[in-house]
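Q: Structure for this?
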Amino acid sequence: MAHTNKSNWELIKNGMFSENTIFKMAISLCPSIAVTNSLKNGFFMGVAVIFVQTMVNLTVSLIRNFINPKVRIPIFMLIIAGYVSLIDMSMAAFARPVYKQIGLYIQLIVAFASIFARAEVFAVKNKIMPSVADGFGMGVGFFLAMIVISFFRELLGKGALWGVPIVPGHPLLIMILPAGGFFAVGLLMGFFNWMDMKLAARKAAQETTR
Amino acid sequence: MDFGKLFQLIIAASLINNFVFTRFLGLCIFFGVSKKMETAVGMSITFTAVMVISSALSWVVFKYLMIPLQLEFLKIIVFIGIIAAFVQSADTIMKKISPSLYYKLGIYLALITTNCIILAVPLINAGEGYSFIESMAFGLGSGIGFALALVIMASIREKLELADIPAPFRGLPISFIVAGLIALAFTGFSGLITL
């Protein structure tokens, strides 16, 4: 991807849907299963990623003319690790109960392929505003994926949402077990593929009738 | 040295708390390289070796540099730096010393830096306060666990290629469901050893 001429809104939408990190690109999958056993955990993880992704793209884009391409990988790593430490410590201070559960995964945002990839393929080559829009879109795409997965897992596994019981009776315990996470992501991924196929088929049908 | 405890650590890290199936780390690589048996085996060998060495290195740095200087809060940055530097140098050294091995395993080395297990193990070691030998045992156990997961998955996926799967589920979605089933089997290991 070279210099972009898409509008900022298009960039945000691109990150949210057509290049959704989890369902389309299938990278940064670890937290999509690890922290989605309740809506709350998923929400905080998503917020952390939006922050890191946007700030990393902003920073990389700001200093893009000063980065020597040969040492860009360690530099990106340092920038990402800096922001991750920041969010890690603020969460440890302000959201203690959630941090106890998802702390390890917050720290591991450093190793996210998606953040690194956006810095590498987008932010180093583009101006500040598009980079911020791209980072924000990617972050929101991840956030939405987390919300969708954790919504289904908590509703089915605990019969509750955000810790508030909704469905009485015996829930499907398996959905909050590790295995349920794999099932949920697999089924949702299949569902989105199916939707894409339907949409593509409809578009093709419209074009032939025209 | 208490070998019983070390053995327990290795078993616990590889089977009970298997990184892929109970902690969900390293999934990108797990789904990325498990398409073929050959790549899965190559990745496992490289991964286990890097795992042991990098947990040893980061233990030394954490214990003798960061704790005396009270820099524990920088552990994320320092550990990722150590790992990246080690992987990069291993890459260069391997290219010089044994080109044939490099052509077989070199590509996996580059991929490893994006694996979250490699960062998680030093972080957990530091968090749990393991000793030097224990850290290495934990690294070895994690490596073995990851290798086991990869090999199981690769052998299933090679068969899946020939199966008649509904179109939207081909590729990744069905692999996720298979992984879910294996994870269910791995839940059976819980309670095998209590540490």
